[in-house]
Amino acid sequence: MGEEKVVEKTTKNNKKFKKFKPRKKTGEIECNLIESLQQRYSDISVDNIKSFKDLPLSVKTLRGLKDGKYFVPTEIQKQSIGFALQGKDILGAAKTGSGKTLAFLVPILEHLFCQKWTRLDGVGALIISPTRELAYQIFETLRKVGVHHDFSAGLIIGGQNLKFERKRMDQCNIMICTPGRLLQHMDENPLFNCSNMQILVLDEADRCLDLGFEAAMNSIIENLPPKRQTLLFSATQTKSVRDLARLSLSDPTYVAPHEQSEWSTPVSLQQNYVICEVHEKISILWSFIKNHLKQKSIVFMASCKQVKYVYEIFCKLRPGISLLALYGSLHQERREQIYKEFCRKSNVVLFATDLASRGLDFPLVNWVIQVDCPEDGNTYIHRVGRTARGLQGKGEGLLMLLPSEEEAMLLELKSKKIPINKIHIDPSKIMSPQRKMESFLAEFSELKQTAQRAFVSYAKSVFLMKNKNIFNIYALDTNAFAKSLGLVVPPRIRFLQKIKKNIEAQKQKNRSEDDVSDVSEESVNKSKKTRDDSDDDNDDSYQNESQTEGDGGFKFDISDDDGEDILTVKRRNHNVIDEVDEQPIDMEERPVKKKKSLTKAAIVKKLLNKKIVANTKVVFNEEGEALLNEKRDLRSELAKEYENEDKGGIDIEKAKLVLREEDRFDKERFREKIRLKHKEEKRKLKQSKKEEAEKDDFGSESESDGPDMSWLPDPDKVYGERKSDNDESPQNSSFEGNDRSSEDEDDNASEENIHRPLKRKLSVSKGIQQKSVKKMKKLRAGVKDLSASLSVSEAEKLAMQLLQSRK
Length: 807
Known about the structure:
20 strands
């Protein structure tokens, strides 16, 4: 910048003041700064770099590194940042924990800064990671280092809100993603545009380019612009010409500061292995955890189901230390929560698959235990690299090997320059939790199913490994391994049974082919002999009976057609059943396959496939039409519209309106119910009145309505004729006779057949004295005679007098 001239001016008041020229614009300052930085790129010398300030970096980047407490660059950072700033393609390989993340983040920030990249320019850099956890870690590091820059960054991984990512895809300058989700946006999102992309970074490049991601990576690379800068970083870098050709690298620079070192793992890492049987692994792991309660450890296993089961059963056993599990089938939010929790805690054990073996920077890990043998030497390096990270980091690793895995695995580790020592475990210090595990599996059926899945998944993982020199599934004692997991009865390994059947069938087929070929050779030799000895020239063909087996023997015909021997098998005798009464030959019954026990998940899947909705009842009328369930089915259009919405959460205001609409239908239904109830009550009342009207004046039913008593026997024949009471006076007898005669005149013929007990007996049975009964009869007879002689008016007067006298 040039010197500014001062101009003196005089006002009316003769006061002097100074006026400065306007300063240069900020854009001009940045342009000059960028030019000066770019001029220094060619002068970068690795030997002269002692701190990040010695590198030609912008002020914003240096401030971000200082805030993140990054002061001294590592070897991989010193060598790779300079080449990356010069625009060269890089293949970076370094030990685990050597700071490869900053080696590609710093060049990205500087390149976009020099290009004056803005949000309107779209995607400028693309970083692809094989795992979500590693992508999240890179994103957090970028936030620390690039906090003072104006670039926008996006984390595009599976398990997140896809709609949220779609809307902001065109605003991201630096995109950190996993292959699957990136390819999904490329195919489905019209806002995604990478035509202006400048830098492509593959972290853990060998994993990104292997068979697991081959199809996705091929599709992604086809959609990327060919003119770009490509950076590949990994602890075990790929050197495959095929992989490098796919990426269209132009004269890449190979940066490997530790390639000439003696060992490929950190020097501060102490590595050991122990030889044990497969059923001893759980006991050794349990004893190790109980003896290291004040340390931070990671336990690696081969499959997700093993991690899940061991974590759950150890939580039941309660070792006295915090336990965590990290595997692929967990939800993304839960995975991030476990990752943060493990980083924060100091005394904890993390059970994990190889998901946690790549690139994750866990602070202060003391032990890495590999319960299951790694796939190869590269996997071992990444697993054990979770400890002893950084310049002063220390850690220890323990590898459990089976006797069948020892020799081949040690050769593999030796070829990768990995120092490892053999140790022996004191048997007296091993504690076996097998009995407790068996009791827990007997109590919890779901835990037992998890154990069975873990058992099968381990066998499958061993079977699918490529290196058969290390992994031999037939060398495993599966019954003992099942017992060590707490399973009393070992589950069936179906895929092994099928493989064994196929192998036996193939062997049997080969044996039969060999036998047939031997028989054919013998028959050919015999046929030649017969041809030489025979003098008959009229025969057109020569036949030889080589083998007969009773009546059902076989005859092999050998004919010379076109100079080739053709073997044909013919049946000599055919046993045909002509008689109808003869029983057919019993065929061997095929073994009935046992039905597979259905789990709860399988039952739910069947219901989902059949589209059956649980807890529903459909009522049909006589015409076959479905009737609405008035109590459960929604009636109002507003409620149906609200039910079909896909929005998350609850809209309180709209829910209130829906309740009011449905309440109106409920009130109408209640009124209709009351109306029907009243109608039914009126109908019953009418019916009762109609029945009362059909009765006679005395309250008894008519004869036609009464019961038919004609079937009853005659009481006189059963009990004999009635005898007159000699103790009764003539008056009494005449009274009874008159009474009976009057009744006979009034009653019908049907009533005469009804048996009635004697009145005297009834009165005695009721406890009434015989004398009082006689007086009552006399009074009744006198009243009856008097009422017959009086008129109606006289009878009323007599009744009134009797009533007054009683009062």
